[in-house]
Amino acid sequence: MKPLPQAVIVGFPNVGKSTLFNRLLRQKKSLVHSLPGMTRDAVSAVCSLDGKTFILTDTGGLDDSAAEPLVRAVLERAWAAARRADLVLFVLDGRRELLPAEEEFFIRLRKLGKPLLAVLNKIDTEAQELAAGDFLNRLKLDSILPVSAEHRRNLDLLEEEIVRLLPREAAEKERPQPLRLAIIGRVNVGKSSLINRLCGEERLITSQIPGTTRDSTDTFLLRNKKIFCLVDTPGIRKLSRTRDEREKASVLKAKKTIVRADVLCQVLDAREFPTRQDLTIAHLAEESGKPLVLALNKWDLVPAGEFAQGHRDAIGRRMSFVGYAPVLTVSALTGRRVVRILDLAEEVYALSSRRVETSRLNAFLTWINAAHPPLTKTRRRLKIKYMTQQGIRPPTFLLFAHRPAPLLPAYEKLFLQLLRGKFGFRGTPLRLRLRKS
Ligand code: GDP
Question: Buried b / exposed e across 381-409, counting CB within 10 Å, b at 16+?
Answer without folding.
Answer: ebebeebebeeeebbebbbbbeebeebbe
